[in-house]
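REQUEST ID: PR-0412
SUBMITTED BY: lab tech R.K.
PRIORITY: routine
TASK: structure prediction, single protein chain
INPUT:
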Amino acid sequence: MNLQCEFLTIEEVGKILGVKRSSSQQRIKKLNQELIDDGYCVVSGKVNKKYFDKRYGLNSNELLFPGKKVKEKVNA
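STATUS: complete
OUTPUT:
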């Protein structure tokens, strides 16, 4: 995975939360529906990393890449 990728895949969500693929898919679908309801566009099968972190109170970069400093992309 690109360290600056803005989306999490089904596999990454499963790894972070310790759940199986089907549960990851359901969670991504729920989060994406929340984003759609708020007027955002989504990518099927992936979830926005910042939104995922906010909703679950986690830092996905720390969980996916322990001990590594990951540079966050800054929008200008």
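NOTES: Residues 7-64 form one domain.
REVIEWED BY: pending
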